[in-house]
Structure formats: structure tokens, C-alpha cells
Write a structure and sequence with these properties.
The complex is a heterodimer of chains A (99) and B (505).
Chain A (H helix, E strand, L loop, with lengths): L5 H10 L6 H24 L17 E2 L9 H5 L5 E2 L2 E5 L7
Antiparallel strand pairs in A: 2-3
Chain B lengths: L10 H7 E12 L36 E2 H13 L3 E2 L6 E4 L9 E4 L6 E12 L2 E16 L3 E5 L11 E5 L6 E7 L2 E2 L5 H19 L11 E11 L9 E6 L2 H20 L7 E6 L4 E7 L9 E2 L10 H8 L6 H12 L3 H9 L3 H9 L4 H9 L1 H9 L10 H12 L5 H12 L5 H8 L7 H14 L1 H8 L6 H11 L6 H13 L1
Helix pairs in contact in B: 3-4, 8-9, 8-11, 9-10, 9-11, 11-12, 12-13, 14-16, 14-17, 16-17
Classes of the chains: A mainly alpha (99), B alpha+beta (505).
Chain lengths: 99, 505
């Protein structure tokens, strides 16, 4: 019984901006199914009194003071950008997205 | 769907038949020195991409660390809104692809907000006098602001038709607190005013807390207004729209009014209201459709693995509670008492967003009534004309107090004082500089005034005779004549004295 459908894999691929061919979807659906199955074994031993773990370390409240640290220069910040213009990161047309 | 305002039913018609439900989401940019998760400066107006570092640029290997002051500010906002403060909460990753966040996710909070389940109250005017309306607070959570986009190649900087966009990440990572109300159900006629009063209240509150200047015109406070409508007498909530970019107090009221009318038009036409994002346009006073809910992103929130959970101790929470300023409602009541204003006068001051300014003006030496007169009169008119906030039109409380002082000293009369304020508002300098430059001081030189008084008496013998005979009625006409002759620059009280002196003898 597979726990992730081909449609769900296609949906995830779209969210991750991945273009996948139909045979890749089938291939990955099988692989993801195995991964989910493996992780699912945890639920067999996790009783109700064991909350889901999001953090491995049992620490809380790690803060820094509100004190300025040096920033990068604009040149350094933009040095890894494929394109820059007027001191800003240049990105391709965003198209029909709303903002 | 109707697009022109003219096609919409009138607000009065709509509120006779429908009841609105509102929900307000307000983002407040905190005034911390550094960003939420890194030590970059938050100062406004720096050159693009000069307040960035590997963390806020999302470079590989960088890790966020939480700003303690931002967390304290969030908790203080929560406490001031009578919220519970979470004993344990986590940050969450909100995943989306959009160039305003270089990481491709925003660190926010999802199902574990730092503050939740609170309330505040606002006062609005009704036909039966001021009414206090309680507003439930669903939650206040922490997140980081996004970068700023500049769209190039399209018309007027719009994203549609742009050939490409330019990103400045100075703002990316600045601490934001998002405050969400519970559904606000209030009688239809009051809804727009309640929405505005709520945002005004929040602005006052965060300013009083000292956690943000909340300058809406700088984007330090931004408002989304959710509106739905249901026919009167029914109980099921209608489908809501979420109007974005409502970034002035006046716009909040206008946008809610517009959306109530638009929903009514859709419902009247027998069509379903579409659940969608709408964009507010200040210039046309209308909203236009944005993305619909079906197209809405699937954000795949999950607990932020790079940040450990927060577990504020109850001692810490109580310590912060001890730092809260006087609650706005209590402050209003206190100031009203100190100033001797009626409920109506106080309401006008509060609704105009002028309470703090009047307070500062009084502190600077003005009498309360005089301070109120200026801020709600000349200055409010100018602010309205310019579409600006009262504290942004170019006159300070100290300058207003100075004008009042000069009136008290007899250097200015009301007419001249108005010209002085007008000059200050026009950017001509301080009150004293305007008086100097425009030559506005009152003529109090008795010799000069005396001549004008004699002329007036000679020109109006009938009036003079009556006054001599003890009929004080025509004194006003004589004073008016002198004021006219001196182009309004005379001290009217002194003129009256001089006239009576001459005619009494």
C-alpha cells in the first residue's frame, strides 16, 4: 500500500519548482514511498506520551543582544549574484505573481 | 462584477440590509537596532544592500540567532493586548519561492504564536455618543520582514509588464510582529470607523510601548483588512476578501467601506463572493482582485530547525508586564480630566490621532483648548489636503505652543496666528521666523492705533454717538473698521479699550 501518490509527488515537484518527466514521477514516488515507510516505523514505537521531536537538543531561549555587527559591503553582497543592477540583485521577470 | 464605484449600492443602503464581519491583520515593524536573526542595522534609508550579511541573505552555512529585544517587544505587545504569553513556542519555516526572501522561506510562527487570546477596546462615535467596542485578539506572532522589489520595464513600477526586477535586502530580516484580531462583529454603520479606530489604537499602543514608531507612510505599520458580509438575520459568515496594502488610517476606513459595498453588489447580483486577496488603490479608492484562494501557496510550514524553541519563564513575563506603560484607555481618561475636555471634545482629539500631539503641546506650555484648536483646525486641514499624518505636516508641538504663547502675550491675534501657522506649515521656518519674514506682529503702538481709532470714529459718527450714549452694540463695528484699516494686525482688545476711552470721556 503506497503512502504517497503520484499526484502528490507532482504537487511537491511543482512547489519545489522541479520539472519532472512522467517516468521520473513514477520513479520518485516509489523512492519517496520507501522513505516515508522507513520514517513511519517510528510511529510504531512512539507512544502517546512521547511528543514529536522537532529539536534534538533539549535547550531553549538562545538569544543575542540587540547590538550591531558589521555588514557586508554592497559589492561583497552582490559578488555571488548572477546579475546586479544599481546596487541591487537583478532577478528575471516575476510574471503574473502578485505582490 | 462591478468595478466602478458608481455601480455599487450606497453604504447607507447596504448597512440597512447586511451585517459585516471584519478581521484585521496588522504588521508592525519593530524599532530594534538590529534585525530579527542577525546583527545587521535596521536603519531606514541606507544605500541598497549595505545592511545585509550572510544570514539575512540566506547564504549557505549561515545560522540565525534570535534578537532578545525583539522577543521582549513581542511579549510586551502581547501583554499590552491582554494576551497570554506562550510558555513554550517555536519558530516555523514558511516556504515559498519569491525573490523578496533570498532564503526561499520566511521564518515566522505558525501554530505556536508567542502571544494569544487577548483583547483591547476602541471608542467610536455613534448617534448616541461615544461607544466602547471590545476587540478580541487572536494572536500576535514574530516573523521577519521581506526585501524590497523594484520592478523595471513596466509602467509606473508595476510588476505587470515588468521586464525584470531589482532586489534590495536591507529590509529582509527586520523584526515584524503580526497582530491578528478575532472576528469583529459590530453593527454595520460603525464597521469602517471601528476598523480605523482599532488601527489607531494599535499605533498608539506600540508607540506608547516604545517598540515601534509605527509610521504607516514608511511601511512600519501595514494593515490587511478582511471583510465578509451576510444578510441581516442570518448567522453563517459570508465568504471573505482580504484587502492588502491599506497603509494609512484614512485608507483603512475607506477600504472597509468600499469592500462592504462591493460585497453587497456581488451578493445582490446573486453571485458568490470569491475568497481572494484584493489590492487597495489609494488614488481611485477601489480594490482590485489579486490571487484567489485556489491559487494560494501551499507554504508547508514546519518547525524551524535552526532555532531552538522559546520558553519564556513566568518571572520574565511578569518583569515585562511591570514595564508596560499606562494603558491607552486609562491615559485617555487621565488626560481628558487634566485638560477638562468634554467626551465629544476628547473623542475628536482621539479620532484625529492628535492626543499625543496635544499632550506634547500642553507640555510645551500651551493651554489645552488652544492646542486642540490648532491640531484639529488648521493643521488637520493641511494634513488632509496633503494626505499626510498630523505629525508629518511640518509643524511641531513646540511651535504650536509658541504660537499660543505669542497670542497670550498679545503679540499675535487670532487672524495673525493663523497666518503664522500657515507659514510654518508652508515650510517658511519657525513661528518667530515667519513673523519676522512676513512682518506679522500685532500693532500695539498706541499712537498708530489711536490715529486709526480716531479715523474710525470720524467715519462712523452715528455709531460713535450711540456708544457715547451707553449703547455698546456698535462697538464691534468700530473695532472692525480699525482692524480693517490696520489689515488685521491690531490687538482687538486694545482697540476696544482705546475706543471706549475716547467715547467715554
Amino acid at each position: 500500500m503506497s503512502s504517497i501518490s503520484r499526484d502528490e509527488v507532482a504537487h511537491l515537484a511543482r512547489l519545489a519548482r522541479l520539472e519532472l518527466e512522467p517516468d521520473e514521477l513514477d520513479h520518485l514516488a516509489g523512492q519517496l514511498d520507501q522513505i516515508i515507510g522507513a520514517v513511519g516505523q517510528v510511529s510504531q514505537v512512539a507512544a502517546d506520551d512521547i511528543p514529536p521531536t522537532s529539536h534534538a537538543l533539549p535547550i531553549t531561549n538562545v538569544f543575542r543582544d540587540d547590538v550591531r555587527r558589521p555588514c557586508l559591503s554592497s559589492e561583497a553582497a552582490l559578488s555571488g549574484a548572477p546579475e546586479a543592477e544599481e546596487g541591487r540583485f537583478r532577478v528575471p521577470q516575476i510574471l503574473g505573481e502578485e505582490q | 462584477m462591478p468595478t466602478a464605484t458608481t455601480a455599487l449600492p450606497s453604504f447607507d443602503d447596504v448597512i440597512a440590509r447586511f451585517d459585516p464581519v471584519m478581521g484585521m491583520e496588522v504588521h508592525v515593524e519593530l524599532g530594534t537596532v538590529t534585525k530579527m536573526f542577525c546583527g545587521c542595522s535596521t536603519e531606514f534609508g541606507a544605500e541598497p544592500n549595505t545592511q545585509v550579511c550572510p544570514t539575512c541573505l540566506g547564504l549557505p552555512g549561515s545560522l540565525p540567532v534570535v534578537n532578545r529585544t525583539a522577543v521582549e517587544s513581542a511579549m510586551r505587545i502581547g501583554l499590552a493586548l491582554n494576551c497570554h504569553i506562550a510558555e513554550y513556542c517555536r519558530f516555523a519555516r514558511k516556504n515559498y519561492f519569491y525573490p523578496d526572501m533570498p532564503k526561499n522561506f520566511q521564518i515566522s510562527q505558525y501554530d505556536e504564536p508567542i502571544a494569544f487570546d487577548g483583547w483591547t477596546e476602541v471608542t467610536v462615535d455613534t448617534d448616541d455618543g461615544p461607544r466602547v467596542v471590545p476587540i478580541g485578539i487572536e494572536r500576535a506572532h514574530m516573523e521577519e520582514d521581506t526585501g524590497k522589489s523594484l520592478h523595471v520595464g513596466g509602467s509606473t513600477g508595476r510588476i505587470h509588464g515588468a521586464s525584470h526586477s531589482l532586489l534590495d535586502y536591507n529590509r529582509a530580516g527586520i523584526p515584524l510582529i503580526e497582530i491578528v484580531t478575532k472576528p469583529i462583529e459590530v453593527e454595520a454603520a460603525l464597521a469602517p470607523a471601528v476598523a480605523r479606530a482599532y488601527v489607531t489604537e494599535l499605533r498608539e499602543l506600540v508607540r506608547a510601548l516604545g517598540v515601534s514608531e509605527a509610521r504607516m507612510e514608511l511601511g512600519q505599520m501595514r494593515c490587511d483588512a478582511n471583510v465578509s458580509l451576510r444578510p441581516r438575520g442570518t448567522t453563517t459568515f459570508g465568504t471573505r476578501s482580504e484587502t492588502k496594502n491599506v497603509n494609512s488610517l484614512r485608507s483603512v476606513e475607506r477600504a472597509v467601506t468600499y469592500e462592504i459595498r462591493r460585497h453587497a453588489a456581488v451578493l445582490d447580483a446573486g453571485e458568490p463572493v470569491v475568497q481572494e486577496t484584493r489590492h487597495w488603490h489609494e488614488d481611485t479608492g477601489e480594490t482590485t482582485a489579486g490571487r484567489t484562494k485556489e491559487e494560494a501557496e501551499d507554504y508547508r510550514y514546519f518547525p524551524e530547525p535552526d532555532l531552538v524553541p522559546l520558553a519564556p519563564s513566568r518571572e520574565w513575563v511578569e518583569e515585562l508586564r511591570g514595564t508596560l506603560p499606562e494603558p491607552p484607555a486609562a491615559r485617555r481618561a487621565r488626560l481628558q480630566g487634566e485638560w477638562g475636555f468634554t467626551d465629544l471634545e476628547m473623542r475628536d482629539v482621539v479620532n484625529a490621532g492628535a492626543m499625543g500631539l496635544v499632550e506634547e503641546t500642553v507640555t510645551a506650555g500651551s493651554d489645552p483648548a488652544g492646542a486642540k484648536k490648532w491640531w484639529l483646525g488648521e493643521i488637520a486641514r493641511t494634513a488632509n489636503e496633503r494626505g499626510a499624518e498630523l505629525d508629518q505636516v511640518g509643524i511641531t508641538p513646540q511651535q504650536v505652543a509658541r504660537v499660543q504663547e505669542l497670542i497670550g502675550a498679545g503679540t499675535l491675534n487670532d487672524k495673525l496666528a493663523r497666518q503664522v501657522v500657515e507659514g510654518v506649515l508652508a515650510g517658511e521656518g519657525s513661528p518667530d521666523e515667519v513673523i519676522e519674514a512676513r512682518g506679522l506682529a500685532v500693532v500695539s503702538d498706541d499712537a498708530a492705533l489711536g490715529a486709526a481709532v480716531d479715523d474710525a470714529i470720524a467715519a462712523m459718527p452715528d455709531a460713535a454717538e450711540k456708544v457715547r450714549g451707553g449703547n455698546m452694540g456698535p462697538v464691534g463695528a468700530l473695532i472692525g473698521s480699525v482692524m480693517k484699516a490696520t489689515q488685521g494686525q491690531a490687538d482687538a482688545q486694545r482697540v476696544r479699550e482705546l475706543i471706549l476711552q475716547r467715547l467715554g470721556e
